[in-house]
Design a protein that fits this description.
The chain is mainly alpha-helical. Helices cover 50% and strands 11% of the residues. Helix 1 packs antiparallel against helix 10 and helix 10 crosses helix 12.
Length: 238
């Protein structure tokens, strides 16, 4: 089995927190990474869109091992259709957003979701602009928010993580109370479907962690094979 010292620590975190996205079961995952946050650098904030570049550049002034690991992970995963963005910087760590642009754009383009996002000032047709706005909504761009290091999660972030529309709206309308059950998110409709989904994600994560520890590269885990219908396989295994 691969030892922690020999492995890329960020890769291990990505497998632990983001296996459903790597496997193509959901469009995105979000987690806080506490490794090397003292000295992150600009490559940790890169994106193909220059608008995001300018917004994120000030968050990470110095290079370090974490920035190198992040650059390596990006180089491995981007050819597989997976991107990593830093959405916020907190005292507890960097908020990393791992997503599949193709899946995410399709999800945000669903009529009910698109309509809601438009009402909140998003442009669902421009994915980079949506992620930039999400970043602004999370952290704020005013001086007061920067000085206070305030950071909040807007309710629409559930759509950016692939949560069902009814559950996101149910959470908003109920202010997080009165849910049917709780798993990866709070469920307000189709409880059995949600629980099956949670089980599928758990099975996927366990399988991917075992494979990674056995030496399977992270880019292989993130390569989608038409001959391997991941959703059906993991659901059946669960």
């Amino acid at each position: 089995m691969r030892t922690t010292a020999a492995s890329n620590l960020l890769e291990r975190k990505l497998v632990h927190h983001c296996s459903p996205t790597l496997a193509g079961l959901k469009p995105a995952n979000l987690f806080v990474c506490r490794e090397g946050i003292e000295h992150d650098d600009n490559p940790g904030m890169r994106t193909q869109n220059s608008r995001l570049n300018s917004e994120f550049a000030t968050l990470a002034p110095e290079p370090c091992r974490f920035a190198h690991e992040l650059a390596v992970c990006r180089a491995k995963l981007e050819p597989c259709g997976v991107r990593i963005e830093v959405l916020a910087r907190r005292k507890t760590g960097l908020l990393l957003y791992v997503y599949r642009p193709t899946m995410l754009k399709a999800s945000l383009s669903q009529p009910n979701i698109a309509q809601y996002l438009q009402s909140e000032g998003y442009n669902p047709a421009d994915l980079s602009a949506c992620i930039l706005k999400l970043h602004r909504r999370i952290c704020g761009t005013d001086l007061a928010a920067t000085l206070s290091e305030s950071c909040a999660f807007p309710h629409e972030i559930g759509f950016f993580l692939g949560y069902p529309f009814d559950d996101v709206i149910g959470f908003i309308e109920n202010k997080g109370e009165n849910c049917l059950c709780t798993g990866c998110w709070k469920v307000y409709s189709r409880q059995r479907d949600a629980q099956a989904c949670f089980c599928c994600y758990k099975t996927c994560t366990s399988a991917y962690e075992d494979l990674y520890d056995e030496g399977v590269p992270i880019d292989c885990l993130a390569t989608l094979d038409d001959n391997f219908p991941a959703a059906e396989a993991f659901a059946a295994a669960g």
